[in-house]
TrEMBL record:
Protein name: Thiamine-phosphate synthase
EC number, as in UniProt: 2.5.1.3
Domain Thiamine phosphate synthase/TenI: 12-197
Keyword Magnesium: yes
Source organism: Sporosarcina ureae
Binding, 2-[(2R,5Z)-2-carboxy-4-methylthiazol-5(2H)-ylidene]ethyl phosphate: T142, S143, T144, G174, V194, S195
Source species, domain of life: Bacteria
Keywords: Magnesium, Metal-binding, Thiamine biosynthesis, Transferase
Annotated positions binding 4-amino-2-methyl-5-(diphosphooxymethyl)pyrimidine: Q42, L43, R44, E45, K46, N77, S116, K145
The family this protein is said to belong to: Belongs to the thiamine-phosphate synthase family.
């Protein structure tokens, strides 16, 4: 059943773009994260000196090839054209991006559609347009997304999970190994992280620690 497949994929959801890789080789970080056991990868190419055009297309294809090797879903953030061009497994859009319902028209029923949400009203809207999952956050303060909205905390995770028991929920924003357990226990199906893996001195090890913690809490 698709819903269960998606909930499992959300367990350890790595989100990254080349600007998040510091001085490291971004593709090496993606591969290390895959080796460490991430369950989903999202290419979120945003911010200063983000790749564009052919450079972005080439990098996206390399990430997609790695994800295929590790049998991990490959999601593109915001850029629906890119997602369609390379036949990504899905797209993730924010509240301010192309209206999620027109995205669903463009990508069709089989690709995954994720929507960023910050409150119950936005989750309700996402559900009504057929989102496959919601990203909920920022749970904690984050310096990765410069225009993040107000911190919501794990209380909202519990609230949304209770109000929308079937909606797959991935929490995002300032999440670390230390806070992952309480987020899962609040009812999230998984955690989405950028810096906890991308900025780790050993991204594979960081991903593996997160994976072990999450899988110790979920059957
Ligand atoms: C993309 C996004 N959306 C809400 S917070 C965030 C960034 C999360 O980055 P980090 O895991 O480093 O706090
Ligand atoms: C903003 C976001 C929220 N949630 C997820 C999963 N990805 C994002 N880019
Ligand atoms: Mg966006």
């Amino acid at each position: 059943m698709r819903n269960m497949e998606i909930k499992k994929a959300l367990r350890l959801y790595f989100v990254m773009g080349t600007p998040n890789s510091g001085s490291q080789d971004p593709l090496a970080i993606v591969e290390a994260a895959l080796r460490g056991g991430i369950t989903c990868f999202q290419l979120r190419e945003k911010g200063s000196n983000a790749l564009e055009g052919d450079a972005l297309l080439g990098f996206a294809k390399k990430c997609q090839a790695l994800c295929r090797l590790y049998r991990v879903p490959f999601i593109i953030n915001d850029d629906v054209d890119l997602a369609l061009a390379i036949n990504a497994d899905g797209v993730h859009v924010g509240q301010d991006d192309e209206q999620a319902d027109s995205v669903r028209q463009r990508i069709g029923p089989d690709k995954w559609l994720g929507v960023s949400t910050h409150n119950a009203q936005e989750v309700q809207l996402a559900q009504s347009i057929g989102a496959d999952y919601v990203g909920l956050g920022p749970i904690y303060p984050t310096s990765t997304k410069l225009d993040a909205s107000a911190v919501v905390g794990t209380t909202l995770v519990k609230e949304i999970h209770t109000a929308f028991p079937d909606m797959p929920i991935v929490a995002i924003g300032g999440i670390t190994l230390a806070t992952t357990g309480s987020i899962i226990q609040a009812g999230a199906d998984g955690v989405a992280v950028v810096s906890a893996i991308a900025s780790a001195k050993d991204p594979q090890y960081a991903a593996n620690d997160l994976s072990k913690t999450i899988h110790s809490l979920l059957e």
